[in-house]
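Quick question: what would this complex look like in 3D?
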Amino acid sequence: EALVISTAHLEGSEKHPYSGQHLSTSDIISTVEFNHTGELLATGDKGGRVVIFQREQESKNQPHRRGEYNVYSTFQSHEPEFDYLKSLEIEEKINKIRWLPQQNAAYFLLSTNDKTVKLWKVSERDKRPEGYNLKDEDGRLRDPSMITMLRVPVLRPMDLMVEATPRRVFANAHTYHINSISVNSDYETYMSADDLRINLWNFEITNQSFNIVDIKPANMEELTEVITAAEFHPHHCNTFVYSSSKGTIRLCDMRASALCDRHSKFFEEPEDPSNRSFFSEIISSISDVKFSHSGRYIMTRDYLTVKVWDLNMENRPIETYQVHDYLRSKLCSLYENDCIFDKFECVWNGSDSVIMTGSYNNFFRMFDRNTKRDVTLEASRENSKPRAILKPRKVCVGGKRRKDEISVDSLDFSKKILHTAWHPSENIIAVAATNNLYIFQDKVN
Amino acid sequence: MGAGPAAGGRGARSSPSPWAGRGVACGGEELRWPGPGGGGSRLLLEGVRVPAPLREPARPAGEGRAACEGAGGPLARSSSRFMLGRGLKRKLSDYEENMAGLSSAFDSSRNLPYPLKRQLVLNMCLTKLQTYKMLVEPNLHRSVLIANTVRQIQEEMRQESSQQPINVCNGIAPNPPSYPGIDSSGISLHLPSGSSQQESNCCNSWSAEGPIENSLLMVSDDDMSSAISSILKDLDFMEDISPPTSLVPAGDDEPPKSPENTCLKLEDDRQDLKGAECVFGSFEISNSTSYLKDLAIDDIFEDIDTSMYDSDFCSPPLMAPRPPSAATEETLKTFPSCNSSSTNNIPICRTDLSELDHIMEILVGS
């Protein structure tokens, strides 16, 4: 099936500070990631495709279309595979995309499905050689006896073409499903994490990887905890963290030993006895962990909260933000329909002052760490109409419902925002809502 | 590896790019969630019977696939993703509605006795685990979380029973340990003395009426542990370490044992599990013992009304699958009522009959 993307534009104005784009694709978006400059935005979908958007240069002709994102490249990253040995289908869904920092004219990114990580090179071509001696312009070989003189081929300009080529395939290293990949700050290595193991790779070597974390017990019956996310420290290439299904985070130092089964730091918050329920453990499972850009903090997302931890304090987070605490009284229903297992991601803004995460009903939340203010916004087509307002939403918990508020019982739990991304330096956010991608830009005058 | 498909939004060569500039979202429809209530998922409102409970369809897609048995080629894609295999889909949708009603009652009702809530959660956990068992590749993360919840409940029940004096049949009921969320006044009863047994039963769903029942309880715990163990062992996917030993059962694609097989004896299972630990650990899910067979629920809950388990909630592979038409009858039976025989020990308090009626109404869906 062809991937179809259609775009709609929201024009911002003084009254309505947000301008936005709404792109609708034919497949469910499963990951969103800006590159290190914010010039490119990559999305992966359930069909194994990667779509890269590039920000337009601001033009004087259309000042209101300030730096819009247009499709730059689309390619099929992963195909469905069938593991004949285990009689299992391997999904082609892209679980994560991570960019490498740009080192030359080409762009490099890692994309992964459940089992295989691939390094893709995305490059532009705007010139092509003309005037070969041994073949003509169509590529057919010339009859050598017809060649009477030699010439030097010249490069002539051509229409810009963006090519994506797979440069490396890192396969067969994971028995369980890969949930995270993270590029190291040395730009030479990266790690991939599945439910029970974390492997360290060198970009140049595809037939070997180092296993640096292995929490698989000798007896599977003793298994009580799995790895849910992992990330390298942004500056210290020897340090990484991984989160678990029990709500704990372990920080490891690869210099300490080859197998980092013993953590350097262990972050866990004691349980609040007043909030104890049958589902306490399930909702404590961490679905995402992210270092701040500064490297001083980590942020974790569990089912109901986002927490910010100081690397120097292991016994509790320094900040806790309630994402949708009104769901606490609905946990049994959410358990019954499996929503309680939804894995929400969380992101920092460029200055680490605001954090953002998704919720249900196509809501997403932002928390300002300095002012302690928070806002709930909705990613919907209404917001993308011209002159529409991206207005704050509110969920009414009980009692009287004011106009414009939505009651908990009216929330649509099939519309969940699991994946969001924040531009590394500007107030531009990308929000994936099922098969729609919303890009909002804060018009700071 | 050759060059990947060259594609671009700008300057693509000959054919026009299919995506740029098109105003119509073709094929980009929102997911439609099937459900009896039609559009959208809605939470049950407290005290209001709503035909469309908060729900999502059972979503094995992404959590496991039904591999076509014997298929050599690539699997059919979208159509097979939502099937659980072996034609169980319709059954589960009946079950889903019932469970949704129960879970909403759990959430909205404050006076539900704690042991009943716990039993409900336990049922849901076991049913989920059983559902995952039927998938070729269950989700390890979810299975671990659910197994931990089951263990936690089991531990709690074990502690309760150990705090209960053995001679409860004297009618001496100790004060129930305080549980979060329990309104202890709701449990205390003013009943004729003959029902003091019932009172203690309220507080302790496993209340032993004698040493015999106590030992049954101990057996149950072990069985539950071994059940959980076997689930987790099943999740130990085959790793390319060493080839399996001679204990290999026939073939990797051997389908799960048919429901007509009687439940294995608990003792045999335990020995099987322990004796063939490593070997079983390296096998796929499809040819290892079903945890429910290990559990032999009939035996464990002998002293408890097992009609809850006889329903569509968790029929295969224990029992022969029942026709969907019997589902409504089953749901009536699933909820123990106070006037059932004395062998039923599901803890209920008479003052909560109205709650039960309410729940039953939801279940029956009338």
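Answer marked as accepted. Residues 1-90, 167-219, 240-294, 311-349 of chain B have pLDDT under 50 and may be disordered.
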